[in-house]
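Lab notebook, entry 232. We have the chain sequence and a SMILES string for zinc ion, and the next step in the workflow is to get a structural model of the bound complex before anyone spends time on docking refinements. Request logged below.

Task: model protein plus zinc ion, output structure tokens.
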Amino acid sequence: MFYILMIVIFVASMIIQGRLRRLASKYSNIPVASGITSNQAVLQMLDSYDVTGVVVKHTGGDLTDNYNSREGTINLSDTTYNRNSITAVAIAAHEAGHAVQDSQGMGAYRVRQFLAPAVNICSRLGVYVVLLGVVISYVVEKDFGGIGYHVSTVGIVMYSVAVIFYAVTLWIERDASRRGWKAMQELQWVSDDQLRAAKKLLWAAGDTYAIALASSAATLLRLLAMRGGRRR
Ligand SMILES: [Zn+2]
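Result returned:
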């Protein structure tokens, strides 16, 4: 059952990533109606939200765009930096959306920042702690109500931090896309057709975070099943 679920998630993730790459490459050849570049778009959007102290920089790679809160930079990749395609402007507006979230002190954004340093260690170690608990239950105690059960529970709580992180991340990513898309509309950078194209692209990008959440939730279910037993 679990393996079928993982295969479904894996196939869905391939489809979603393929769709994102296809849309990004298709719209990277179409200039926006206003001719504005991604860099100008970021500055206009930040200005309209009164966000100061954020600069645009170039970063290598493809679809590696990000907002760095600590350094106050919006890093745009090779296909995005200083370009006027629908893809470049939409992605730049999305990253500017993150800068707006940060400057407005959005709750979910703060939660994500708080959880981020703990996520890797919690997700990796959590799995091992659950396994350790299962070994104690099976091998040492030969019982599912003892210390092993509680050790597994600690592992499950640890892993849950990662699931919460992915859920909050999905929320933040959708919100940044909504903000970016709204700016594209209100600041009149694109035609109506292009606005629809940008929406498709931004939502396809957000779907990759939905897959990350689904995958971590499936693993959590698996860990719960492994723990088994009931507290007496
Ligand atoms: Zn984002």
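Notes for the group: DSSP finds six helices and three strands in the chain. Worth checking against the assay data. The mean pLDDT is 93.
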